[in-house]
Amino acid sequence: MRYLSTRGPAAVQSLSGPTFSEILLAGLAPDGGLYLPENYPRIGMDELDAWRPLSYAELAFQVLCRFIDDIPADDLAELLTRTYTAEVYCNGRDPARAAEITPLHWLERPDATRGEGGLAILELSNGPTLAFKDMAMQLLGQLFEYTLAKRGENLNILGATSGDTGSSAEYAMRGRAGLRVFMLSPHQRMSAFQRAQMYSLPDNNIHNIAVRGMFDDAQDIVKAVSNDHAFKARYRIGAVNSINWARVAAQVVYYFKGYLAATGGVNGHSDRPVAFAVPSGNFGNICAGHIARMMGLPIGRLVLATNENDVLDEFFRTGVYRPRAAAETFATSSPSMDISKASNFERFVFDLVGRNPDVVRELWARIDAGGAFDLSGTPYLARLPAFGFASGASSHADRLATIRKTYDQYGLIVDTHTADALKVATELRSVDMPMVVLETALPVKFEETIIEALGRRPERPLALQGIEDLPQRVEVMDVDVAAVKRYIERHAG
Question: Which domains, from first to last, does the chain contain?
Fold first, then answer.
């Protein structure tokens, strides 16, 4: 499998592109685009049914070996076996279910006699930082360490986080040979728990930078540094944000796992569609669902849920993609989605416009200049229904109401982002297919809003009791690319 950039140039897209290991370490393409495979491997229904008895690590191998052919199969299988263990993915959950890694929790089981498709939550927050980002990031740590050891190289990871990516990356990379992490976050824009998870890590290879701005400002700095090719080469800069294809590829796996669980587990049959509802900020999580669907997984509908920052919902309703300025980006009670410019959206648009990098370059020239684009008068928008997307938005009042309703009806406390997805999923669910909501995080990460909604504190794992009281290490600076570069120069290996 070779890879190409969403921005071309078109004349060389058909030539042999870089391998998986090369783009793993590179992150962003040299032309500023994002990497995608030359084609999406197709999975047949008989093959999918044969995967039903597999463990999560075994299923991950079957999916990811289609995208990774420059790591020996035995080595890849070993990396996956070391990553997806009950010991790693049992945090805050029943140990008896830990071996499932991503258990499916039915809120309402399908009932054909009553014409009910069912409603379920796919638990993705069993990892060490209690967020779905652990599902991919734990593997990314293994892949980085393995590849760097083979090459005898070091890497300085530069990333941006709106809340969960940072802690997941730092917990996955802490203490690993050959790796340093420089993580940018928006100053005072994350929950106290999220800040404590990141800033309290004492490891010498972890560096936190809080910028006085929004997530989009932090993400723009990461892209600017990555696009300075001389600096990137000199300091061996890599990426862990979902601009890195390995992150998205790893997330594809749990769509297959969720589908198999929702359609009968080991004894099921793969011919029924399933809908997935996904809280979306940077579009990476739902982009993985789009890729799973392109691979042939019978996803009947991909339901995208936003919070008050509804740029993506606006696009899927109108065809207009209009990122907001920092002053127009709301600080909300689902802060990991307080994003205006969704990096991974470029990957989907690349497929939407027929994988034409010339079109993508023209569209993103407008975005990079602070503008917008409108596909409503183009033939591209007519293709949109074929990709199965639907969308909706949620507000703070909606989150509180959904958290209360979910607890009252099902005895389950959900975090604020999962509540956004549940709200939209409930509005858009249909009787002809199950609706699976992708869990984002455990509610303890957003304790203040849970208390507001329910008048009680959510439970937290013993290992994370009092984490807010630990000493914290963070460098606060203005939104300044040069200042971030100087910090990397002083601390890079």
Answer: 95-130+246-454 (3.40.50.1100)
